[in-house]
């Protein structure tokens, strides 16, 4: 029993270290020299695809290293209890996050623009790198972040109860993006994803919802922003 507890404590320490490093690095990056104009060009650059591939590849590798020996169980890689019920929760979380975003925007905040990665409009001459970055945003990013937070994180924090796992992973997920004005939305989204993970007993519905959310947000940014060409 003591050996098993030490193994769990070691995994939790590794997970908290990884998430803590992610939080520090992302907040530190917010105070870099990159301008908003350069950042908004990110989705039209091949370098962004490569950079994201390296970053999230490392995150995935470290996550798998933390849960080694119990990958399927700790990452909740199993069929959800009910896809029908999961779909209902997904819809509720999706609508709730966009309603909250609208409320914050009405209060003068700009949570949807703070990160500054989504382009302000469509540039057909650079459709190829945009398509590649779109795939990264709706597939790779949700996969890695959900395995990290709603997979490993939820399972490791669940020893203190479902509430601790839901709120804990939600708050740390929000902080992990290194944003301030968007933090309430990110935490709310993280809590919603964790709730979905808890109710479905699977990481697959959160991955799907996360991907849909990112895809809709990007499409809205391009189609509703200023047209480039």
Describe the protein:
With 229 residues, the protein is mainly alpha-helical. The chain has one domain. 72% of the residues lie in helices and 0% in strands. It is built from nine helices and no strands. The chain has helices spanning 2-29, 36-40, 46-66, 71-74, 83-106, 127-157, 162-175, 183-200, 204-224. Helix 5 (83-106) packs parallel to helix 9 and helix 7 (162-175) runs antiparallel to helix 8. It is globular and about 60 Å long. The model has no long low-confidence stretch (mean pLDDT 89).
Blueprint (SSEs and pairs):
Blueprint: H1 2-29, H2 36-40, H3 46-66, H4 71-74, H5 83-106, H6 127-157, H7 162-175, H8 183-200, H9 204-224
Helix pairs in contact: 1-3, 1-6, 3-6, 5-8, 5-9, 6-7, 6-9, 7-8, 8-9
> pLDDT under 50 segments (min length 5)?
none
Considering DSSP H and I runs of 4 or more, what fraction of the residues is helical? over 70%
- What's the average pLDDT? 89
Please count the beta strands (DSSP E, at least 2 residues each): 0
Q: Biggest β-sheet, characterized?
A: none
Task: Tell me the strand percentage band.
Answer: under 5%
| Structural class by secondary-structure content | mainly alpha
Distance between the termini: 64 Å
Shape: globular
Radius of gyration: 18 Å
Treating each run of at least 4 consecutive H or I residues as one helix, how many helices? 9
Order of helices and strands: HHHHHHHHH
**How many independent structural domains?**
1
């Amino acid at each position: 029993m003591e050996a098993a507890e030490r193994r769990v404590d070691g995994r939790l320490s590794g997970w908290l270290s990884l998430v803590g490093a992610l939080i520090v690095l992302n907040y530190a990056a917010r105070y870099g020299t990159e301008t908003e104009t350069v950042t908004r060009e990110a989705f039209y650059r091949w370098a962004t695809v490569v950079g994201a591939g390296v970053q999230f590849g490392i995150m995935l590798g470290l996550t798998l290293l933390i849960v080694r020996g119990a990958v399927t169980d700790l990452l909740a890689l199993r069929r959800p209890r009910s896809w029908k019920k999961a779909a209902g929760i997904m819809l509720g979380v999706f609508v709730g996050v966009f309603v909250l975003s609208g409320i914050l925007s009405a209060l003068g905040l700009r949570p949807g623009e703070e990160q500054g990665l989504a382009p302000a409009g469509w540039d057909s001459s650079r459709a190829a790198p945009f398509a590649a970055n779109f795939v990264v945003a709706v597939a790779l990013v949700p996969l890695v972040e959900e395995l990290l937070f709603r997979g490993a994180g939820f399972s490791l924090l669940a020893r203190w109860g479902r509430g601790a796992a839901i709120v804990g992973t939600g708050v740390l997920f929000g902080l992990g993006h290194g944003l301030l004005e968007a933090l309430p939305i990110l935490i709310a989204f993280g809590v919603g994803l964790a709730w979905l993970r808890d109710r479905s007993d699977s990481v697959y519905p959160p991955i799907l919802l996360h991907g849909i959310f990112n895809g809709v947000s990007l499409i809205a940014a391009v189609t509703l922003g200023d047209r480039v060409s």
